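Chapter review: from sequence to fold.
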Amino acid sequence: MKKFFTIGLVLLITLNSMAQDVYKFAIHFSDKNNSEFSLSNPSAFLSTRSIERREKFNISLDSTDLPVNDSYIQSVLNATTDAQFIIEVKWLNAIVISLTDSSNIEAIAALPHVKNVVKVFRPNPNGVPSKKMDYEISDENFLGEFKSALAYDSSFYGGGWVQISQLNGQKLHELGYKGAGIQVAVLDAGFIGVDQRTIFQHLWDNGQILGTANMVTPGMSVFADHSHGTAVLSTMGGYWEGMLVGTAPDADYWLIRTEDGATEFLIEEYNWVAGAAFADSVGADVLNTSLGYTTFDDITMDHTWDDLDGHSTIITQGANLAYAKGMIAVNSAGNSGTSSWRYVGAPADGVNVFSIGAIDGEGIIAPFSSHGFPWSDIVKPNVVARGASAYVASSVVDMVGPSSGTSFSSPILAGITAALWSADPTQSPKMIKQAIEYSSDKFIQPDTLYGYGLPDFEEALNILGIQNPGDASGNIILSPNPTHDFITVDGDIFDNSQRYYRIMDIKGQVLIQNQISSGRQTLTLDVSQLSSGIYILEIIAGKKSDKVKFSRI
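The token string follows.
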């Protein structure tokens, strides 16, 4: 994984834990037959909130929702005395195990219900981790940059002012949309200090930390390893007036450790998919992942550019499935813009993943921000947010300061996405994602640096018909919005015998056009033939015209 940050704060944290002298394998099973669980009784393996999300968005249960067959798991553990269970990855119908003798995998592979096995971790040849992670912030630089920022900052948002105002996200907060009722799962490397720092105290006081899960070392605290997730969480859920207020201070949070900061192996992609499945099962709405994968400590596990087709890698399969389950997966685009790799990693390549590039405080793309693939039709990154000198919290002292990486553009965007969704939780993930992209300043001509560009969340609110279901002039009143089959149009739609209406997609392509009968002041239009999405209705009479946006679910 590339940990998407480069930092300067008062602290230096070096993670150098010893690797276990074991091999780890993902065991994929052929089916989930004869399971003790049934799709007819989902409450046995999904929370009420998770089930309600599926019902709200008409998402069917399928075999990926079922836990892995326990008898298959036991057969693996009984096949050899050194097999130890680590985690279940139900979306892939797999488990991850450890072996002290790697040759014992042959007996496991021969089991009748085992489809295939994948080596996901090996001991480092010299017995120590191949990778150290340094997280350092200079006190002197921190104070100087923060003081200069306050000259044009808001006394409420503190260092977070620029990163929210660039997105016009403060307009959502002014309307009371701060993420309340939306659950955000943060999948990261660890959360040292989240249980101690002032900036997170409101989350604990208000019961907004809903729970934790550790996929790297199951059963262990997520507050004992790494501070990357701490900085990430502060940009969303932080609340420290005059110092740093995040983009979704009223949202609820699940803290999930999936990344081992000391080494880099394929197991971390399986950890992530297990973490995403956990987030789904407890009812999370938004996933933020400031992680990405391209190359590994074992080169046989490395990805190639061809692997990053939007569908293929293990973690991208999981991220796309999260979207199919009704969640929005927000992910860092990556920090490879100046490296030989250059392009986005996995799962940022995912066709349904919301990948976020990094800009600076002036709106200019950060050199390190990973590019989209010029040979692909998939727009990456999807949009951008501040990731160069973004303001984050320290994990060991009560301070905030500037830090850089798409690690931070992603949660800044994820948080304000949660705030937008809290304005109308009935909107589908597709509608929320589309509205954000359509509001962006490069939507008509996206590129491989900015993607669709910098979103305007006040405009996204308007696109969804939440703040003002009619147009600015108030000539057209359209309901219901969003709609499913029919819309009714009322208001002053021009007293003229030569009137007509047309419905266009967001890019202006005319899809439906018809005359309006003379004298009509109310229209009922059948839009059932349109696919789900956001559209524009235009009423035209002579040289007059009025437009209103609506969405079909």
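Two observations follow directly from the output. The chain has three domains: 20-121, 137-463, 477-552. The longest strand covers residues 533-541.
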